[in-house]
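Postdoc handover notes: sequence design on the structure in folder B. Input tokens:
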């Protein structure tokens, strides 16, 4: 923390911004925790709704082959919406916890999520090489050509990265609005 004595010519707003502005790791971390918790909660609710509606993952092979693209697009859009809502809320929490630079706090939430995801992927690959985890798990197979699946996966990954980045940034800006309103009222 930077502490200094105010002089008569200093602007109080710039002093507050210098003192309390910038990136706040604590706010970004707690915003990320909110984003993760909300992702789990919303994904659980979406799964419960899908189960109540009678959507089953045990679809006949011929039906899967006919409508695999439709099922994949619906699932991808649902996942994107869940992640964007969660990262918006995480950015909001981080922006609300910090007085200034709400957008920067939202970007911090996204960055922590990106780093945590990268670590999880690397650990998954390492443990798969050592313990052959993926062969022990009965994962569903998708009857789609690999090149089609790869391009669709890259498009979905780009949508998730950009969507969560924008949502976290906007959430941080919205969280900062509270402090901006208070500053306008008390000025």
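Designed sequence:
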């Amino acid at each position: 923390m930077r502490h200094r004595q105010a002089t008569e010519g200093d602007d109080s707003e710039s002093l507050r911004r210098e003192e309390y502005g910038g990136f706040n790791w604590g706010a970004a971390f707690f915003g990320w925790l909110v984003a993760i918790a909300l992702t789990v909660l919303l994904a659980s609710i979406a799964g419960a709704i899908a189960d109540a509606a009678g959507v089953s993952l045990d679809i006949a092979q011929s039906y899967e082959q006919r409508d695999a693209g439709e099922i994949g697009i619906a699932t991808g859009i649902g996942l994107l919406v869940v992640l964007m809502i969660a990262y918006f809320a995480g950015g909001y929490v981080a922006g609300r916890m910090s007085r200034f630079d709400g957008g920067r706090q939202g970007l911090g939430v996204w960055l922590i999520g990106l780093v945590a995801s990268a670590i999880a992927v690397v650990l998954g690959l390492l443990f798969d090489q050592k313990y052959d985890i993926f062969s022990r798990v009965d994962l569903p197979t998708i009857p789609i050509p690999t090149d089609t699946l790869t391009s669709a996966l890259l498009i979905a990954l780009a949508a998730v990265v950009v969507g969560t980045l924008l949502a976290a940034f906007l959430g941080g800006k919205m969280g900062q609005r509270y402090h901006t309103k208070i500053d306008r009222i008390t000025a």
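Context for whoever picks this up: The mean pLDDT is 82. Don't rerun without checking with the PI first.
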